[in-house]
Structure formats: structure tokens, C-alpha cells
Amino acid sequence: MSRKEKIQRAAQRTAGEAREAAKRQRDSERLARERRNFATTAHRHCSVCWTPIPLDEEPPICSDAECAEKQQKRESSRKRLTVMLYLFPGIAILLVMLQVLGASG
Ligand SMILES: [Zn+2]
User: Fold this and answer.
1) Which of 10, 14, 11, 12 shows the shortest CA–CA distance to 22?
2) What's the 95 CA to ligand 1 centre distance in angstroms?
3) Confidence of residue 99 (pLDDT cuts 50, 70, 90)
4) What is the reported pLDDT for 74?
5) Which of 79, 54, 19 is nearest to 63 (CA)?
6) pLDDT in tens, 28-61
7) How many whole angstroms from 85 Cα to the centroid of ligand 1?
8) Alpha-helical regions (H) of the chain
9) pTM of the predicted model, to two decimals?
10) How many whole angstroms from 37 Cα to the centroid of ligand 1?
11) Strand partners, 53
12) Which residue among 17, 33, 72, 104 is least crowded, i.e. fewest CB within 10 A of its CB?
């Protein structure tokens, strides 16, 4: 490789790096701008896929049928959990009370 070629290569590489840096800079500026635009409009996210949806959307899911189904499942399992959360201690207390009553009576 001649000296001239070496210099040419180095120059090309540097130009390429400069282009890359400029592109990165542009990308980050664009991202920041988009983020700012996004922050100005009030919105919420689909609780399944996190797609931005209108603020008054209720239940908080997008129009995707799959998300609706998942949300439904999640909701019913949450309800079941809540029921168990009250039911099991209730049964435990009942058993203890029965035992206390049985011992005293
Ligand atoms: Zn969704």
C-alpha cells in the first residue's frame, strides 16, 4: 500500500465517521423533538402492549382484540386473587373460632 493510498483511506474513514456522527446527532435531535411533542399531548398507554391511547379510554387498552382478551383475563384473575385474599384468612379465623368455642364449650 502506497503512502498516497494510506492517506486517502484515512481521509475516507474520517469522512465516514463524520457522516456517522452527524447522522447520530440528527437522530438524537429528532428523537428529542418527538419526545417533546409526545409529552405535550395527554395520553395513557394500553396496559397490555403500551401503545399510546386516548386519555379517556376505558378500560385502558387499545383497539386490538388480543389486548382486550388479555386485559379481560388479567382482570378476572385479579378478582379471583382478591376473593382468595379475603376468603382464606376468613376461613382460618373461622377455624380458630370453632376450636376456641369447642375447647370452652
Ligand atoms: Zn394494546
Assistant:
1) 14
2) 45
3) very high
4) 95
5) 54
6) 888 877 766 655 578 899 999 999 999 888 889 9
7) 29
8) 3-40, 65-104
9) 0.45
10) 21
11) 44
12) 104
